[in-house]
Hints:
The protein is mainly beta. The protein has one helix at 14-23, and strands at 26-28, 31-33, 38-42, 46-52, 61-66, 69-76, 95-102, 113-117, 120-126. Strands 3-4-9-8 form a four-stranded antiparallel sheet, with no helix packed on it. The protein has a three-stranded antiparallel sheet with strand order 5-6-7, with no helix packed on it. It has a two-stranded antiparallel sheet with strand order 1-2.
Amino acid sequence: MSLIKWTPFFSEFDDMDKTFESMLPTVRGNQFGFTPAVDMYEDKDNIVVETQLAGIDPDKVDISIENNVLCIKGESEKKSEVEDKNYYRQEIRRGSFYRSIPLPTKVDGDQASAVNEGGILKINIPKAAEVKPKSIKIQTKK
C-alpha cells in the first residue's frame, strides 16, 4: 500500500496543468502567439539576454526597458501562396509574441544594444553605476 501526501491547498494535477500550458501557444484576445524562451546572465558590467528569433524579421521586433523590466514584442508572419493545404502536422508557431522579463538589478536602459546574429537576438544592458561592485584598497599605517 502506498501513501499519498495530503495537500489541502494544492491540487495533485498542478504540475500537469503547468506542463500543458507551457506546450500550448499563449492566447491574447483572439490571437494565438508564442512566448520566446530566453537565457539571461550577467558579466562584470552587463546583463545579457539572448533569445531565438529565427525566421523573424528583426525590423518587426520592438525592445524596450522601463522600470528595470525588459519587454520584447514582435510578430512572425506566414508567407504562403496556397492557403488550402492538407496538413499532417502544423507545429511552427506564428503570430505575435510578447515577453516581459524583470531584470535582476538596476540597469542603464539608454545604453542598451541589441544584435541579431544567426537567428539569436543578443541584448546587452549595462548595469547602473551605483550597482557595480567597487573595490576598496586597504591602507596600512606603520
